[in-house]
Write a structure and sequence with these properties.
GO terms for molecular function: ABC-type ferric iron transporter activity; ATP binding; ATP hydrolysis activity. The protein is of the alpha+beta class. The structure holds adenosine-5'-diphosphate (ADP) and magnesium ion.
Length: 353
C-alpha cells in the first residue's frame, strides 16, 4: 500500500509542533526506515500512519484513499513494538492465530494460516511452545507473524530489535528484510541505528527536530547528504568537519569563488584522504603529516594534521607516523561544503563526479 502525507502537522499540546508540514510518499511494496535521534519524531510519525494518533492538520492517504479520519482498525495495519507483548498463556500457534480468532475466522482456516506464517518466520518447529520457552529473537519472529496474520495493508515496526543483543540484531534485521521481500508487504521500520537502516532499507527518511532532513536511498544519504546534520548522522567513522576557511587557499581556482565565499564548514569522509594521486578522482593535493595511527583487525585509521586541523583517514595505513610534511590527496567523492545554515552547497549530486 502506498502511503502519502500532505502537509501533516502534529502537536500534542496545541502549542508546539512535534512534526511540521510533513510531505512524503512511501511507494507500495518498499521497506522504508524512519531514522533519527531519540525525540526526533519517529514514533509520532509511525503512529500517525497507523491511526493511533490523529494529525492536527494535513491529510494522510493510503493509495488514493483519504484515511486521515480513520482509526487504526479501519486502516488494517500490522504492528510490532520493542516489547513484543505476546500472550504468555497461549502457544506460539495460538498467538499467531489470535487476530484471526478475534476476526471470527473459522478454526481450521486460522490454524492453516498460522502454520504458514510460522513457516515464513522460521518458528514452525516451535508452534506448541509457550512464548516464555522461546529466545528473544524467536519471540520477535512470532510477533511479526502475528502482525502479518490478517494480511495487513502495512507492516509497522517501532524499534523492534532494541531489546536484542548485537549479534541477534544483525540476524533479525536480515530476517525482516527477507520476510518483507517474500511477502511484498509495504514495511515501515523505526530505528535510531543508522547501521540497521542502511542495511535493510530501500529508502530512509531521516527525521530530526520535527522535520524530514532527507528522504532517499542509503547510497544517496551517504554520498549526497542534504545538510550537515545528515552528513554527520550517517557513516562510520563520523565525517570530519573543519572550518572551510582552512581550505580556502587549497581550493581557490578549483571550486567557484562564489561557493567558497558562502562555505562555512567542510565535510571530509575518512576515505576521501588518500596517500597517492588517483588522477581524475582527485580534487586537490594537500600537505600535512600523519601524527597518529591505530589498527584494530581490518580497521586502520590515521590522524592527519593539516593546517592546524586533525582529519581522520582510513586510507593512510601504509604511511609511517612522524612529523615530516608529506603530500596527500583529497578526492572529489566524499568532500562537501556547507553554508552557515548547514545546507550542502558543494559535493555529491550537486557536482557529479
Ligand atoms: N504523548 C505525548 N505527549 C506529549 N509529547 C509527546 C508525546 N509523545 C511524544 N512526545 C514528544 O514528541 C517528540 C517526538 O517524540 P517521538 O515521536 O516519540 O520521538 P522518537 O520516536 O523519534 O524518539 C518528543 O519531544 C517527545 O517528548
Ligand atoms: Mg520512538
Amino acid at each position: 500500500m502506498k502511503v502519502t502525507f500532505k502537509d501533516v502537522t502534529m502537536s500534542y499540546d496545541g502549542k508546539t509542533d512535534t512534526l511540521r508540514d510533513l510531505n512524503f510518499t512511501i511507494p507500495d511494496g518498499t521497506l522504508v526506515s524512519l531514522l533519527g535521534p531519540s525525540g526526533g519524531g519517529k514514533t509520532t510519525t509511525l503512529n500517525l500512519i497507523s491511526g493511533l494518533l490523529t494529525a492536527t492538520s494535513g491529510q494522510i492517504f493510503f493509495g488514493d484513499e483519504d484515511v486521515t479520519k480513520k482509526d487504526a482498525l479501519a486502516r488494517k495495519v500490522g504492528m510490532v513494538f520493542q516489547n513484543y507483548a505476546l500472550y504468555p498463556h497461549l502457544t506460539v500457534l495460538d498467538n499467531i492465530a489470535f487476530p484471526l480468532k478475534m476476526a471470527k475466522v473459522p478454526k481450521a482456516e486460522r490454524r492453516k494460516r498460522a502454520a504458514e506464517l510460522a513457516a515464513l518466520v522460521h518458528v514452525d518447529d516451535q508452534v506448541d511452545k509457550k512464548p516464555g520457552e522461546l529466545s528473544g529473537g524467536q519471540q520477535q519472529r512470532v510477533a511479526i507473524a502475528r502482525a502479518l496474520a490478517k494480511s495487513p495493508s502495512l507492516l509497522l515496526l517501532d524499534e523492534p530489535l532494541s531489546n536484542l543483543d548485537a549479534r541477534l540484531r544483525i540476524e533479525m534485521r536480515e530476517e525482516i528484510r527477507r520476510i518483507q521481500r517474500e511477502t511484498g508487504v509495504t514495511t515501515i521500520f523505526v530505528t535510531h541505528d543508522q547501521d540497521e537502516a542502511l542495511h535493510i532499507s530501500d529508502n530512509i527518511m531521516v527525521l530530526s527536530d520535527g522535520h524530514i532532513q532527507q528522504f532517499s536511498s542509503p547510497t544517496d544519504l551517504y554520498e549526497s547528504p542534504n545538510n550537515l546534520f545528515v552528513a554527520k548522522f550517517i557513516g562510520t567513522p563520523i565525517i570530519n568537519t573543519i572550518p572551510a576557511d582552512v581550505l580556502q587557499d587549497a581550493l581557490a581556482g578549483i571550486i567557484p569563488g562564489e561557493i567558497l565565499e558562502r562555505a562555512e564548514t567542510a565535510g571530509i569522509r575518512s576515505e576521501a584522504i588518500i596517500p597517492y594521486d588517483a588522477g581524475d578522482a582527485v580534487l586537490t593535493k594537500l600537505s600535512g603529516s600523519v601524527t597518529h595511527s591505530q589498527k584494530f583487525g581490518r580497521e586502520a585509521t590515521s590522524d592527519v594534521t593539516y593546517n592546524g586541523q586533525t582529519i581522520l583517514s582510513t586510507e593512510m595505513s601504509g604511511v609511517p607516523e612522524d612529523q615530516a610534511q608529506l603530500d596527500f590527496y583529497l578526492t572529489k567523492k566524499g568532500f562537501f561544503l556547507f553554508d552557515d545554515a548547514g545546507t550542502m552547497i558543494y559535493g555529491g549530486d550537486l557536482h557529479a563526479q
